[in-house]
Amino acid sequence: MKIHHLLLLCVTLFFSGCATLTKDIDVKTETASGVSLADYKTFAWVASAQIVNDPHGNWEPTNFDADTEIKFLLLKELRDKGLEETMRNPDLLLVFAAGVDMQNLEFVKDSKTKMNSLQQVPKGALLVVMIDSATSHPVWVGTATGDVESGRSNEDVRKRLAYAVKKMMADWGKTAQSRY
pTM for the complete prediction? Predict the structure, then answer.
């Protein structure tokens, strides 16, 4: 009986740790009106952009390539949704951008004085856009935003990106409406 309690405690701590790691991440998606995402079967990468000015490695840990990681995560999710990557006549064109605003200011409540004060709270964002290749119109947009903390490990950044991409793609193809 004690082993079961220990196992339950370990599982609870594991999942609460993940929730804490990602609690600040806000994900939104929107599908163009009248579009059935199920009609799309193939995609091609158009471009990706990292709009990150992080000369001191505050956001992106040393030896970590966020661009490659995001592309890997998106590819996995799209394949899981039944889409196939192709260079010949793709149904969708995929573009994404990741950026960090190290100068973002927000009101933060001081724990001692209980008063709000303006403080620097860096924010990161991921934007993913799917474009119908026949019409050149966007048919799906996903965004994820979250706080940026310096000193995160490669593994923590990887988990945060994985959470954002997985949550972003969770509603793919369910309904053609805004999920804001």
Answer: 0.75
